[in-house]
Specification:
Elements: H1 4-33, H2 40-47, H3 51-57, H4 61-84, H5 89-102, H6 104-110, H7 113-122, H8 129-150, H9 156-177, H10 181-196
Amino acid sequence: MTDSKGSGAGSRATAGSKRQRLMTATAQVVHRQGVERTTIADIARAADVPVGNVYYYFKTKDELVAAALTEHARQLRTLTDRLDALPDPRDRLKGLVAAWVGQRDVAARYGCPTGTLAVELDKRAEGGLDLEAGKVIRLLLDWAERQFGALGLPDPAGLALTLVGAYQGMSLLSNALRDPGVMTSQGDRLLAWLDSLDAASAVSHPG
């Protein structure tokens, strides 16, 4: 006899897995191609599901873009949760920079996933999703601010802006120049900057 409860739970798990696969695929395809060039068929192919399945979970392209932003936020939380296991806030920040540099080849080809998406969405006539992209970047800023605050540094919000701004800048330059070495060299500068900071003599920008 089939256990109807077990069957239902299995069905929900399968549906959740397929939805997550679609969200991950959407984030990847939109990052590579941009919103306007991405089609439902592209996402179905990347997720290895029939096109009809995409429409079952996401009725419009905007819903898919929102799903991509949700996936960016999920990936960011996964990273910061892992970094939060480190006892030293400075090591957490340095771990963040190392993670950015670890994605140097992707950045050189496509730029920062959330940053490039935020710029593209801001140019659209219809609004709303650009604000959602900003919320993902705000998650990163807030996390970085907490780390600088835990170090007892003055103006932790300003330091967080400096750090994230440096990341966006080096991602953009790496992409424009198609040079992953930009991420490596600027990542080294950020690590040296983080090592140089102390509560008595915090500087406002990497030097």
